[in-house]
Design a protein that fits this description.
Blueprint (H helix, E strand, L loop, with lengths): L1 H18 L1 H6 L4 E9 L7 E2 L2 E2 H17 L6 E8 L13 E9 H14 L8 H13 L5 E9 L9 H10 L7 E5 L3 H7 L4 E5 L5 H13 L3 E7 L11 E6 L5 E6 L10 E2 L6 E6 L5 E7 L5 E7 L2 E8 L7 E6 L5 E6 L2 E6 L1 E7 L5 E7 L4 E6 L3 E6 L4 E9 L2 E9 L4 E6 L4 E8 L9 E6 L5 E5 L2
Parallel strand pairs: 1-4, 1-6, 6-7, 7-8, 9-15, 16-22, 23-29
Antiparallel strand pairs: 2-3, 4-5, 9-12, 10-11, 10-13, 13-14, 16-19, 17-18, 17-20, 20-21, 23-26, 24-25, 24-27, 27-28
């Protein structure tokens, strides 16, 4: 009965791979390199349904290789590393791991792997961490642009001191290989949890599950997977663009992809090449940024990731003014500055309420609401110029009078007698001055004044 199920499965898989053959021919430039890491430790001698685990695992792996043998997949290379097969246990030998079949084109690799599998006997120690560590060298010894994938087939837990979780994560961060697949044969719940940190655990506790596992793996390896990011405007159309997008690997926390979103000639979001093996946290660098967690890419499909990015514009204008004042933008009620916008510019922001602080003298404050698809125009009057003449060097400063509130906006530090300042117009100001040579706090001079746009006022305190 199991044989019939296997035949049906591989007939389906054969048809599936023929359909995908077009993609495999197109994608010849980037090689898919798959390293099988095969457990031949003594635990594989135990029973799995109606046979030994190692013999059943061999048979199923050979069958999948046979199904690939009839395909014209030019961009797929295979290799085989085996552990626990060279020395008997006991004693425990943690270096019992060897690359038995080096990477080679598909048909050659299939022939060599099948020959080697038939000779392997389960004997020794489960050295998973060491084998993954050595697998890094297997990939390093080859040249050319490639997607490097490990498929670990095992039934046991690590028996040596090397932590497979740390090894896997470290080598993924270095970009040596993608997140591994771990096929668990006869695994209990405790065993499964211990491998969550190594890679993508695929359960093959029961023999009839193994075919589904291999189907998932190979669909991830050779399928034509494409991704578009739709940044939706206020009409829920994917027209927002020209922002950079970052994809962080949720397993390694590393930045895997950093793209600037574009629309093609037909104003359709461009297609991005994103690995489907990992899940991602996305940051879309609108103002403020948009965060999306645990984004999955489905293998063998065209993925569309829709993000609401409803934006409007803020246009800050100060006419007849050459000075480039900075405008500090915050979300309403928050302290964090999300953008610094120059005067006389237009910038996009997500729909919402914002607080504006403009570094004029005195500072200009406002709270505004930016609506999606619209432009909020903030016109500011041009500054005027105040030329303040002091009778001598001294202390004091310039104050802005706002009702009962008097705010110091500029300080005299006893260094010069003339101060040229650009001030916001139509406000009341006051100069307070005490000479450097005076030691009497009552010997001060005061003068109030106002200023007009594009006008120069001379304020003399003598």
């Amino acid at each position: 009965m199991i044989t019939n199920k296997i035949k049906i499965f591989f007939l389906f898989l054969l048809t599936f791979l023929i359909v995908k053959n077009t993609f495999s021919q197109i994608n010849d430039k980037k090689i898919n390199r798959v390293l099988f890491v095969f457990d031949a430790s003594q635990s594989m001698l135990s029973r799995w349904d109606n046979g030994q685990k190692i013999e059943r695992a061999k048979k199923l792996l050979i069958n999948i290789l046979d199904s690939l043998d009839s395909q014209n997949i030019n961009n797929l290379e295979l290799a085989l590393r085996v552990y626990g097969h060279q020395y008997n246990f006991p004693p425990q030998i943690c270096e019992d791991s060897r690359l038995e079949v080096d990477f080679s084109p598909l048909k050659t690799a299939i022939k060599n792997i099948k020959t080697k599998l038939n000779l392997i006997k389960a004997r020794g120690t489960t050295a998973i961490g060491y084998s993954i560590e050595q697998a890094a060298n297997d990939f390093k010894n080859i040249k050319g642009d490639s997607r490097n994938i490990i498929i670990l087939i095992t039934d046991g837990q690590e028996e040596c001191d090397i932590d497979p979780c740390r090894v896997s994560k470290r080598l993924q961060k270095k970009g040596i290989f993608l997140k591994p697949f771990i096929i668990g044969i006869g695994a209990d719940d405790y065993w499964k949890k211990s491998f969550d940190c190594v890679g993508e655990l695929l359960d093959a506790t029961y023999e009839n599950q193994f075919k589904n596992v291999l189907n998932i793996i190979f669909s991830n390896i050779i399928d034509n997977t494409t991704t578009q990011v739709y940044l939706l405007d206020h009409d829920n159309k994917p027209t927002e663009t020209n922002v950079d997008i970052r994809f962080y690997n949720t397993f390694t926390d590393e930045l895997d992809y950093h793209y600037v979103h574009t629309l093609n000639k037909e104003n359709i979001p461009d297609t991005m090449m994103i690995e489907n093996i990992n899940s991602y946290d996305m940051i879309i660098n609108t103002i403020p940024p948009i965060y999306k967690e645990f984004i999955s890419i489905d293998a063998g499909k065209h993925n569309i990731i829709e993000i609401e990015a409803h934006q409007g514009k803020l246009n800050i204008q100060m006419f007849n003014n050459k000075k480039k004042y900075n405008c500090l933008i915050r979300r309403a009620g928050e302290k964090e500055i999300i953008n610094i916008q120059e005067i006389n510019s237009t910038v996009k922001y997500l729909k919402g309420r914002y607080e504006i602080e403009i570094l004029t003298l005195p500072k200009y404050y406002d709270t505004i609401y930016i609506d999606a698809g619209l432009t909020y125009n903030l016109p500011l009057p041009s500054t005027g110029k105040a030329n303040i003449f002091l009778p001598s060097k001294g202390y004091g400063g310039l104050y802005f009078i706002n009702g009962n509130i008097i705010e110091k906006i500029y300080e005299f530090k006893g260094e010069k007698t003339r101060h040229n300042l650009e001030l916001l117009p139509n406000r009341k100001y006051k100069v307070v001055f005490r000479a450097l040579s005076s030691y009497d706090h009552t010997e001060i001079r005061e003068k109030e004044f106002t200023i007009k746009s594009n006008k120069t006022e001379s304020i003399k305190l003598y």
